Description:
Structural class: mainly alpha
Number of helices: 2
Shape: flat
Radius of gyration: 20 Å
Strand content: under 5%
Helix content: 10-25%
Number of strands: 0
Order of helices and strands: HH
Largest sheet: none
Distance between the termini: 47 Å
Amino acid sequence: MTRAARELTRIYNRNVFPDLGVTWGTYPNNLGHTDFPGCFRCHHDAHSTPDKKTITQDCSVCHNVLAVDEASPEILNTLGLKKL
């Protein structure tokens, strides 16, 4: 078996569980929040504790937002990904 085939088998076995009914298409893509619910699958007011506490919608609780709607954010320069 080639190295690539072994790696593909390893990835498949990490992500597909036929005995549990889980395959590549079982769950939707939840990356981002423009085209998919993403974080808002849980971070919304529909889930609450008995005393009415909900999961926060404050993005900074889970993410370190480095730039929003900037044409040339400084972070790209800092990371060496773009010259300003």
